[in-house]
Design brief:
Radius of gyration: 23 Å
Strand order of the largest sheet: 3-2-1-5-4
Strand content: 15-25%
Distance between the termini: 28 Å
Number of strands: 14
Shape: elongated
Number of helices: 11
Length: 343
C-alpha cells in the first residue's frame, strides 16, 4: 500500500531513471469548490503515461492536448522555467472544464529532465517516503532547480541537497507554501494503522482503512484467534503488541486502535503506544470500561499526560450498534484527528 503522493513520486523516479523527461503538475491554490486539494499532483512521462489527477478528467484532457500540440513546451521555453496555469478563471472555462460553480485551480507545471541531479532528488524522496520520514520537495520557481528537506522526528536538520533553512512546522497543515521564489511541497508517506484483536469490528475497520489508503496490520497474540480472520491487503501478526508498536508504529504516520476487549492484548499495546509519536491511539469500550482502563494504566508506568492522549471510548458518538456502524464511527474519528479537526 502506498499513498497517492508516494505512488506519483515513485513513478517520476522510475521514469527519470529510465532517462525519460517528465512533466509534473502540482495544485498550488484553489478557490471555491475544487475537485482535488492543494498539493495534489499529476505526472506525465514522454510516452504520454499519466499518474495522479487534478480533476475529474477534463483538466487532464486539456493538459494532454496542450502537451501534444507543443504549446506547453513553447511556454516553458519562453518562461525559462516552471510556470503557473490558472484554470476556471472565467465562467466559460469553468463550464468547459466541468469545474464546480466558482471553482478555480492554480497549477504549477514543471518540466523535469532526467539529469543526475534530478534523479538524485527523486531517489532521495522515494527513500524518505519509504522510511516514513517527514520530507518536502522544493522548487526554485525561477530556474526549476530541485532540492529536498528531510526532517527526522525532533530534528530540524536539512539534508545536504537542501538549499534553504526552513524548519518543519507540524502546527501548520498547509501542504504547499510559496514564497521568496520557492515552492515548498510537504509530501506524505502512507499512514499505517495497527488494529488489535481479531474480531468483526476490526474486519470492518480494516476494510474502510484500506479504502482510505492506510497500510493496515492486524495483531492478535492469542492462540486460535487468527485462524479464521482475514481481509485482503491486511498484514496479520501474532507478535506481542508492544514489540510490534516499537518496531513499526511509533512515528507520526502511525495509528494504534485497540479493539480486542481484552486487557492482556489492549493494555500491552497501549502501555507502549501512548509513549510514542503516533498520531492516534484509541481503545474500544464503554464509558465504564474506559474509566477502568484509565485507572489501570498508571500501574503500567504511564503518566497522566500520556493517558490523556488516549481516545476512549473510541469513535464519534453516532448511536452505532453493529460492527459496521462502530467501524464508521472509529474511522471518522481517526480521519478527524489526522486532519487536526479533533483534539
Amino acid at each position: 500500500m502506498r499513498s497517492s503522493q508516494q505512488h506519483i513520486i515513485e513513478s517520476v523516479n522510475d521514469w527519470l531513471t529510465a532517462s525519460q523527461q517528465v512533466w509534473l503538475c502540482t495544485i498550488l491554490k484553489t478557490w471555491g469548490s475544487s475537485p482535488r486539494p492543494v498539493g495534489a499532483m499529476l505526472a506525465c512521462n514522454s510516452q504520454g503515461e499519466l499518474v495522479g489527477s487534478l480533476s475529474g478528467g477534463c483538466i487532464e484532457e486539456d493538459f494532454l492536448e496542450q502537451l501534444k500540440d507543443g504549446s506547453l513546451s513553447a511556454r516553458y521555453n519562453a518562461e525559462g522555467g516552471p510556470f503557473v496555469i490558472e484554470y476556471g478563471v472565467t465562467e466559460a472555462e469553468q463550464a468547459r472544464l466541468k469545474l464546480p460553480c466558482g471553482g478555480q485551480l492554480h497549477v504549477l507545471l514543471e518540466s523535469i529532465e532526467p539529469s543526475p541531479a534530478n534523479r538524485a532528488v527523486f531517489a532521495e524522496l522515494v527513500q524518505a517516503l519509504q522510511n516514513h520520514s517527514r520530507v518536502s520537495r522544493r522548487v526554485d520557481l525561477a530556474t526549476g532547480a530541485l532540492s529536498v528537506h528531510s526532517v527526522d522526528a525532533g530534528s530540524a536538520t536539512a539534508t545536504a541537497s537542501n538549499t534553504l533553512d526552513v524548519d518543519w512546522d507540524d502546527s501548520k497543515p498547509e501542504s504547499v507554501v510559496v514564497g521568496d521564489g520557492v515552492m515548498v511541497h510537504r509530501l506524505s508517506p502512507v499512514y499505517r494503522l495497527l488494529l488489535l484483536g481479531a474480531g468483526d469490528v476490526a474486519r470492518y475497520v480494516a476494510e474502510m482503512a484500506i479504502a482510505l489508503e492506510y497500510e493496515v496490520t492486524l495483531c492478535d497474540p492469542r492462540p486460535n484467534y487468527l485462524d479464521h480472520w482475514s481481509v485482503n491487503g491486511v498484514e496479520i501478526s501474532a507478535s506481542l503488541p508492544d514489540d510490534l508498536v516499537r518496531a513499526k508504529f511509533s512515528n507520526p504516520y502511525s495509528g494504534i486502535v485497540a479493539l480486542a476487549h481484552d486487557p492482556r492484548v489492549d493494555d500491552m499495546a497501549l502501555m507502549e503506544a501512548l509513549k510514542t509519536d503516533a498520531f492516534y491511539v484509541g481503545a474500544m469500550g464503554s464509558e465504564r470500561t474506559s474509566a477502568a482502563r484509565r485507572e489501570r494504566l498508571p500501574e503500567l508506568g504511564l503518566s497522566e499526560e500520556e493517558i490523556d492522549a488516549l481516545y476512549a471510548p473510541i469513535g464519534f458518538s453516532i448511536g452505532s450498534k453493529t460492527p459496521a456502524e462502530i467501524a464508521i464511527a472509529v474511522m471518522a474519528e481517526i480521519t478527524a484527528v489526522r486532519h487536526g479537526r479533533r483534539q
